Amino acid sequence: MGGEEQWDDRETVLVTGATSGIGYELCRRFAANGHNLVVVARDARRLGEIGAEFEKSFGISSMGITVDLAVPGAPQQIFDDLQRRNIPVHILVNNAGFNEYGPFADTSLQRELEMIQLHIAAITSLTKLFLPAMLQRRHGGILNVGSTGSFAPVPLNAVYCATKAYILSFTEALAGELQGSGIKVTALCPGATATEFAARANMEETRIFKGPLMDAAAVAAAGYEALQENRGVVVPGIMNQATIASIRFAPRRLVARIGRWMLEQKPAH
Ligand SMILES: NC(=O)c1ccc[n+]([C@@H]2O[C@H](COP(=O)([O-])OP(=O)(O)OC[C@H]3O[C@@H](n4cnc5c(N)ncnc54)[C@H](OP(=O)(O)O)[C@@H]3O)[C@@H](O)[C@H]2O)c1
User: Name one Pfam family in it (predicted).
Assistant: First the structure.
């Protein structure tokens, strides 16, 4: 972890959920393009390794903040820490997320409330905290990671998809407000991607995760490029784009039935 004494005046990107999967690959993208990194997650050891790796590979400065974003007050803690160290955030990437899979009657309320805190409250708070300085500079970027589940109600993923719908709606509305402000705003909405996400949610045997998975680096590249182009929404991958296009014209109940089938465990034979 680099200290503020080594911090140079390159643009800094703050990435939540930087320790694995899409967040890790987004860090690589931004670092390769000359951005300093503030990496945020709960695993201090992995944060340290990532910071050191990207400092060495790309000659950037980095700083790790070990925090559980499902705890209220965590966004303010991050903001205060960076203010104290005089580290500005030019681009905010709200990527951290997880799933609690299963029928709503059986899933953990505790985990679902943490998910709502992480996917809704933390993203809203971090954006509220870091936006004013971006507006002052008339320059900045906000990349929020939604999901193809942002577009559809999916049984066995009821709370997850509802939180991801919030992210998409919030991001599109914000993009509308910030047009002409110099701040780019994008919602990155991936489909099934090969990361630690499915294993952590015990979803590896579902049809959706037994099917073709996108590569996290390709998803990150799509998000990075869409933000550069200030595209409000990006769905990476042609198959995911076709799925989203078909959802727009199908009855919601049919979408939910197909979604449920995708989320069921694939029979072993
Ligand atoms: N993989 C997919 O199929 C898929 C599809 C659509 C959308 N997405 C979305 O993509 C985003 C990234 O997921 P991923 O697939 O890359 O999953 P992942 O490999 O499991 O990575 C999740 C990241 O979020 C961090 N995180 C989780 N809970 C956190 C918390 N409470 N506080 C701080 N950090 C936390 C994890 O780090 P620590 O454990 O160290 O905290 C990790 O760095 C998520 O928003 C997810 O919903 C994924």
Answer: adh_short
The response to whether residue 51 sits with its C-beta less than 6 Å from ligand 1 reads no
37, 59 contact by CB (below 8 A)? no
Catalytic annotation on 160? yes
pLDDT of residue 133 exceeding 50, the answer is: yes
Q: What is the dihedral angle through the alpha carbons of 253, 162, 147, 109, rounded to the nearest 10 degrees? A: -120
Query: What percent of the chain stands above pLDDT 70?
Result: 97
**CB of 167 sitting under 6 A from ligand 1:** no
At residue 7, the pLDDT reads 79
43 ligand 1 Cβ < 6 A: yes
Residue with tokens 């300085």, as numbered in its chain: 133
Third-level CATH fold of 4-263: Rossmann fold (3.40.50)
Inform me whether the pLDDT recorded for 164 exceeds 90: yes
Probe residue for ligand 1, chosen from 15, 19, 161 as the CB with the greatest number of ligand atoms within 8 Å:
19
Mean pLDDT, the chain, integer = 95
Comparing 28-32, 108-112, 265-269, the range with the smallest average pLDDT is 265-269
**Domain residue limits, the chain:** 4-263
